[in-house]
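Backbone-to-sequence.
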């Protein structure tokens, strides 16, 4: 089975190389910009009503052949599905970010760890009642 994903925009961030990015985006106060492509901008209607967003992105520089990874601070590897490694068969990144502001087709967010130029796949509103487990 194959799938076709539509890239809805591009992420602009201060991180030019993977080693520049924080281990987790929530650990950073840097601002990143989600530049939404023109045809998808109508999908932004109402987005400003949400303080936090879920951002899905394609980790286009990941190694898709790796099936094991060693988490930071650990010495033993494990299967990638038991880690948050970007290197995996389908390198989909997910982050909960704070919405800073929206200007035209650009959404400024805080708390994202994506590298500059990363393809943007989707944006969803974050709901603490649904997305946070006690």
């Amino acid at each position: 089975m194959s799938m076709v994903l539509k890239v809805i925009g591009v992420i602009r961030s201060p991180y030019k190389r993977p080693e520049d990015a924080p281990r987790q985006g929530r650990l950073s106060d840097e601002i990143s910009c989600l530049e939404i492509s023109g045809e998808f901008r109508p999908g932004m209607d109402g987005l400003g009503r949400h303080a936090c967003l879920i951002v899905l992105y394609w980790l286009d520089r990941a190694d898709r052949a790796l099936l094991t990874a060693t988490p930071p601070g650990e010495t033993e590897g494990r299967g990638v599905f038991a880690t948050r490694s970007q290197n995996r068969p389908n390198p989909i990144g997910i982050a909960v970010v704070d919405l800073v502001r929206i200007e035209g087709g650009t959404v400024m967010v805080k708390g994202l760890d994506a590298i500059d130029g990363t393809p943007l796949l989707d944006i969803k509103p974050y709901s603490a009642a649904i997305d946070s487990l006690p």
